[in-house]
Design brief:
Layout: H1 6-9, H2 20-30, E1 36-38, H3 49-60, H4 73-87, E2 96-99, H5 101-113, E3 119-124, H6 130-136, E4 140-145, H7 156-166, E5 170-174, H8 186-198, E6 202-206, E7 231-236, E8 249-252, H9 255-267, H10 274-285, H11 288-310, E9 316-317, E10 325-329, H12 337-348, E11 350-354, E12 365-369, H13 374-395
Parallel strand pairs: 1-11, 3-4, 3-5, 5-6, 6-7
Antiparallel strand pairs: 2-8, 7-8, 9-10, 10-12, 11-12
Helix pairs in contact: 3-10, 4-10, 5-6, 7-8, 11-13
């Protein structure tokens, strides 16, 4: 058969996509084993019934044909109003492209700013799709390492070094952060902004967890001086409104960039179904009360989880300031994150994500998703900590 393109065959550089433990846990669960899944950021509640009713009413009412490719006017305006209210940066519908979820927005953003072969920076640890997304856009994925002892916060010097060495055209950041749970403070964002301006980079800011902040304050880097004209912001209904399967997201940026991105959408996705957009519009119009209802369980579970971690000395937690995850340091066991996760699944039917799935900087860590009921989460974490303690004693 004819050969496939190098673009598609090198998305994972011929190696792992990072999801092996998750896939194995799902197969075990499908076979009837009582696996406690703490792997992916999937809400344990469904999409709110009122949103589903709005989607049903829209579809039943006939909004099932082609929708406007940039997004229906009312939704673009609602997203623009939301961004303006939350950040203070004047934003109009002309700055908004509605996309099939945040992942499509990430891809579109990199297509917009990279020519074939251009280097694109991203912070390590990273969400598992980041390097593949960059390669899919014909870019060279260049990680910027961070340190666990600095809570995985990016350092300006490391960004500058990577930009200078690679000749990068863009930098991808994510705050609140998946997988680390960190919320970038203003000092970190100012270092990021200075580096991007000095090296003339586009900044792609993934802000899909902006409603899940437990400590500190979410600040969009687009708000900093000189950044609005060089920043593309990725947003989504998935995390804020538990609409993961609806695939409703957006990209916010300068008008000329959005105009070009509309051309890209016309040639690729051809927009988002109208009834899904109507459901997203209804959800946004419910205001912060609905967002708080969806985020509150994760704040509560974060507190419960940190209490469990504080009661032992083998496992330590990276400060969990936002998002629906905990990053746990298990280096005292002498195991890699991958080996720890595989053994924990085999011996206790608890599935967590290896830190190595998110990059070299997270080696010796595991990520725990706070996505099961409180009692199950506490029980699983106590088992995880006891398991780690046993491994550490055996390694001593």
């Amino acid at each position: 058969m004819p050969q496939l393109s190098t673009r598609i065959t090198t998305l994972n550089e011929g190696g792992s996509d990072g999801w092996e433990v998750f896939y194995r846990a799902r197969k075990m669960a499908a076979a009837g084993q009582p696996v406690t899944e703490l792997t992916i950021g999937e809400h344990d509640i469904g999409t709110d019934a009122s949103i589903l009713q709005a989607i049903h009413a829209s579809a039943s009412g006939g909004h099932t044909g082609y929708a406007m490719v940039p997004g229906v006017a009312e939704l673009r305006q609602a997203v623009a109003d939301r961004i303006t209210a939350r950040t203070g940066v004047p934003t109009g519908p002309e700055n908004v492209l509605i996309t099939p979820g945040g992942q499509a927005a990430l891809f579109a953003a990199h297509v917009a700013v990279l020519s074939p072969g251009d280097a694109a920076l991203y912070i390590d640890p990273y969400y598992a799709t980041y390097p593949g997304t960059i390669r899919a856009a014909s870019g060279r994925a260049v990680p910027v390492p961070t340190e666990a002892d600095r809570a995985f916060l990016p350092q300006g010097a490391a960004i500058r070094a990577a930009a200078a060495e690679s000749g990068a055209k863009s930098l991808l950041v994510n705050t609140p952060n998946n997988p680390t749970g960190m919320v970038y403070p203003i000092e970190t964002l100012e270092e990021i902004a200075t580096a991007t301006i000095d090296h003339d980079l586009w900044l792609i800011s993934d802000e899909v967890y902006d409603t899940q902040v437990w400590q500190g304050e979410h600040i969009s880097p687009r708000t900093l001086p000189g950044m609005a004209e060089r920043t593309l912001v990725v947003g989504s209904m998935s995390k804020s409104h538990a609409m993961t399967g609806s695939r409703a997201g957006w990209l916010v940026g300068p008008t000329d960039a959005i105009d070009r991105l509309i051309d890209l959408a016309t040639s690729t996705t051809y927009g988002v179904p109208g009834y899904i957009q109507d459901g997203a519009l209804f959800a946004l119009n419910q205001g912060p009360d609905l967002e708080d209802k969806i985020s509150t369980p994760f704040r509560r579970r974060r507190d419960l989880a940190l209490k469990v971690i504080a009661e032992q000395n083998t496992v330590t937690a990276i400060p969990a300031q936002g998002a629906m995850y905990l990053m746990l340091d298990i280096r005292a066991t002498g195991l890699s994150g991958r080996d720890f996760a595989e053994a924990l699944l085999d011996e206790h039917l608890i599935a967590v994500m290896p830190g190595e799935s998110f990059g070299k900087s997270a080696a010796g860590h595991v990520r725990v998703a706070l996505t099961v009921a409180d009692d199950r989460l506490v029980e699983a974490l106590k088992t995880l900590c006891a398991f780690a303690d046993n491994k550490a004693r055996a390694d001593a």
